[in-house]
Amino acid sequence: MRPTHNDRYPALDLVSPPSILTTRTLKFHDEEHANLLNAMWLIAITFLSVGFGDIVPNTYCGRGIAVSTGIMGAGCTALLVAVVSRKLELTRAEKHVHNFMMDTQLTKRLKNAAANVLRETWLIYKHTRLVKRVNPGRVRTHQRKFLLAIYALRKVKMDQRKLMDNANTITDMAKTQNTVYEIVSDMSTRQDTLEDRLTTMEDKLVALQEQLDLLPDLIATRIQTQQEKIEQRRNFLHPESAAGLQQARSVPPGCPWPGPAALPPLGKSSIPSTAGQS
Known about the structure:
By secondary structure, this protein is an all-alpha fold. The protein has helices at 5-8, 12-25, 36-47, 60-88, 92-129, 136-167, 170-237, 239-250, 274-277. The radius of gyration is 57 Å and the shape is elongated. The termini are far apart. The relative contact order is 0.04. Mean pLDDT is 79; it is low at 1-12 and 259-278.
């Protein structure tokens, strides 16, 4: 099977059907131009959004076909421009490399401009203060170079600001937003952990306060128990004094306090002689 003319030239597939329809449906101003080639010319210049106006349709159907062709041509042109611009656009890595190289170049230019400013400042000082006779022409020359160096320094700084502004693309902003979100999430987690630790510490302080409130009663109970133990021990060792103390506790408040019991003097007479018994 031999290829047709449209198979050899695929671009004609977009032009031939509207051209045939236009030939069948529209009427031109004169019958001399009412052929297929002129219809293809009309569709081509309408599709490419040129529109010379040398050949125009007169019927409503032909005008509708021309408008549809123009809309389709505008869409195809926009699609072609978008695809080509996407192919020509730098990737993210290439943008970072380009920005790095431009930053390095601007840094070198900034250093050179700053060195020129310092050099011209020194030369102006040299030719005005360190010479016996001032040469106005040379001083003005160095002043002019000094101003040019200042302007160059300002221009380099402005270029650096523009580069920093252009470097902040949407992708970088999204990455920065993700980083900030991670930092905020980490801070929120740490804050929750800190709140839990503070709550635990508060509970422990409350328990400690309760124990401190119970401490006086415990101390008093302990002292009373200790005193009772001391009394029991004293009663066990000295039953006479314990009986006197018990009697003193049993005496009513209005009665006189009984005198102390007469105890025999401690001496040789009170101690029985073991020798006499023997």
